[in-house]
Design goal:
The chain is an alpha+beta fold. It has 19 helices and 10 strands.
Length: 627
């Protein structure tokens, strides 16, 4: 019954959207049609929420007559993972996509930004058109309420890698980040019919871009934490295609936010701002097409659907064509000449560098797809490609990020700049020399990356202290918070990259392992039965100079339904250093493969990422209060 009700709500939502689009397809809407459109927007959110709740109840009740429940859950699955299983597969994830999209449309329909009614309704019509496309996909190509007859009982299982608490919020954060860009996309397409000035367009789109970038930052950083302790590789980022795809709209949003800063105050909307406003959502669609459409295979891609990729590509292609029509219809605005030393020049340079980094990721993601389709041979880029073409040029971005806040709003010469900030420059130069001295055993790449990270952190803090006043602190929090977060994140990456230690060995009960200055001893192994798996939990003591630091309890699990084994890492943090231990395979229940990792300063990566996410989110809520 719940399945039929959920399916009916999906179909009713699609019908409501189609009727509203046909009824309200006019250049000017009268009051009755306007009310019908707005109430239809809010009704679709309630219908999709009801549909999603029906799917959730099917998982909670273990209704194996539904194909998605039979394949991705069982009666012994813990409650929290039954909830996560609701969107841990392709059909459920696309229903969640439609639900969150309806929430964004409903929030935008409240018109908190006081957009003129006629223009606001045209934007809602564009959003409704996008909703119709995804509802068609969910109903006809990825129906989560498809029945299975006869149905198996307790034969499926949620992927063991997804049976983790982070899966309950990581996909939601990513989807909130991807889908938030649909609002600037709809605003950009509206310029096909109604001219919008640059200041107006920035005022309306900036809160949504910041909101999306904030959610996306938190989603990416939570995904890196999941990869660190769940995959058991001792690392946090592996340049996996799915990881790279999530970076695409984030980098595009970073370019757009910098373009906002040096946009001219003209009546004609700048082409670059329009392009990147739409490009953010296009890259989000491309990510969904590549990942959910099965175009790439990845350890992260758990919801593959190769046979459905054509429809997802059609949605992307239609949006792509509409973007370029709007782009070429917009008249070209003359570039303003900037002096050699100016805030506009710094912001343009930062935008160019970020656009270059965006191109590097796009090339690494789509070139292997094209190459494999043409030559029928697999191809992938190794880590050195990203290190040389992405990581090293990022050091120049750090320099620009540190200097830009000082010169964006001030017209000053190089001489005045050096005189006014001489003490900051002296302190930072001295800190850099100390960095090179104490890190003399590191390669030059490590010294430069750590020095650049410290430069960004110290300069941002010094600038914030000397320029922020009681009246401007709220306005400046997003700028300095995001730049400081990037600096902390980069410092964590640099320090961890060149100081991480790892080892692997075979141990039996009572064995000890000398690892750097530490001693790891396997005290015991004990069985730990659970509802849907049997775990063997190890008890390892960690000592330094004979003093106990703590105990680690890694597990090796055997899942009953699929008969698959999975290692659950144990992590112990002391200060800024984390110790990670993984209990691997065994052949005789006596000898166990053990992998140990020491990751200094890795915690800074997540602290910096959270700071970036919260800083960009604050732009949306600050502007909402102002409105």
């Amino acid at each position: 019954m719940f399945a039929e009700l959920g399916h009916f709500c999906l179909i009713l939502t699609l019908s409501l959207n189609v009727v509203a689009s046909i009824t309200c397809y006019k250049k000017t809407l009268n009051s009755s049609r306007s009310v019908f459109l707005l109430y239809g927007v809010r009704a679709q959110s309630l219908l999709l929420l009801l549909s999603f709740v029906c799917l959730l109840l099917a998982f909670l009740r273990s209704d194996f007559s539904l194909a998605v429940v039979a394949h991705h859950s069982q009666s012994t699955t813990p409650l929290i993972y039954k909830i996560a299983a609701t969107w841990g597969h392709h059909e459920g994830s696309m229903l969640l996509w439609c639900l969150l999209l309806s929430f964004y449309i409903s929030l935008f329909s409240q018109n908190l930004q006081k957009i003129p009614d006629a223009l606001h309704q045209k934007m809602i019509q564009k959003l409704q058109g996008m909703m119709i496309l995804f509802l068609c996909y969910s109903i006809f190509y990825a129906n989560p309420f498809e029945r299975l007859m006869p149905f198996p009982i307790n034969k499926g299982e949620l992927n063991p890698l997804l049976q983790d608490i982070s899966i309950t919020f990581h996909p939601i954060l990513l989807y909130l980040g991807f889908l938030g860009f649909v609002i600037p996309f709809a605003m950009g397409l509206t310029t096909l019919w109604t001219p919008i000035s640059t200041p107006q367009f920035i005022q309306w789109t900036k809160p949504w871009v910041s909101l999306s970038m904030g959610f996306l930052s938190l989603g990416i950083i939570s995904g890196s934490w999941w990869a660190y302790y769940e995959l058991g590789w001792g690392g946090w980022w592996f340049w996996d295609p799915v990881e790279s795809a999530s970076l695409l709209p984030w980098l595009s949003a970073a370019v757009l936010l910098h373009l906002y800063k040096h946009s001219p105050e003209g009546k004609t909307l700048q082409r670059s701002i329009l392009f990147f406003s739409c490009f953010c959502f296009l890259l989000s669609l491309a990510s969904v097409w590549v990942i959910r459409g099965g175009m790439v295979l990845s350890v992260h891609a758990f919801a593959l659907a190769p046979e459905r990729s054509l429809f997802l590509f059609m949605i992307f292609f239609v949006s792509f064509v509409a973007t370029f029509i709007a782009f070429f219809k917009l008249p070209r605005t003359p570039d303003q000449n900037s002096p050699l030393w100016s805030g506009r020049l710094f912001l343009k340079s930062a935008s160019v560098f970020l656009a270059y980094l965006l191109f590097v990721i796009i090339w690494s993601l789509f070139f292997p797809i094209v190459f494999e389709s043409v030559t029928n041979q697999s191809f992938s880029f190794n880590v050195s490609y990203f290190t040389k073409l992405f990581c090293y040029p990022t050091l120049a971005v750090f320099l620009l990020m540190a200097l830009a806040p000082l010169v964006v709003e001030k017209k000053t010469t190089i001489k005045d700049f050096l005189v006014y900030h001489r003490w900051k420059l002296i302190i930072i130069a001295f800190s850099t020399m100390l960095c090179f001295y104490f890190l003399k055993n590191l390669p030059w790449a490590g010294k430069l990356s750590i020095a650049a990270s410290l430069w960004l952190i110290l300069w941002t803090l010094a600038t914030a202290v000397t320029t922020v006043t009681r009246h401007t602190i709220v306005k400046k929090i997003p700028l300095y918070g995001a730049h400081l977060g990037i600096g902390v994140l980069a410092l964590g990456i640099s320090m961890n990259q060149f100081s991480q230690k790892e080892t692997m060995t075979t141990m039996t009960i009572g064995d000890s392992l000398s690892f750097e200055d530490f001693e790891i001893k396997l005290e015991k192994i004990q069985p730990l039965p659970a509802s849907n798996y049997l775990a063997y939990q190890g008890n390892f003591s960690l000592k330094k100079n004979g003093i106990l630091i703590g105990n680690l309890y890694p597990e090796r699990r055997l899942y009953f339904a699929t008969q698959t084994e999975h290692s659950e890492a144990s992590i112990l943090r002391k200060g800024l250093t984390t110790f990670s231990l993984i209990l691997g395979e065994t052949w005789d229940q006596k000898s166990w493969v053990v992998r140990a990792y020491i990751n200094p300063f890795i915690i800074l990566i997540w602290i910096g990422g959270i700071l970036v996410g919260l800083s960009t989110l604050s732009v949306f809520f600050r502007r909402r209060e102002k409105n």
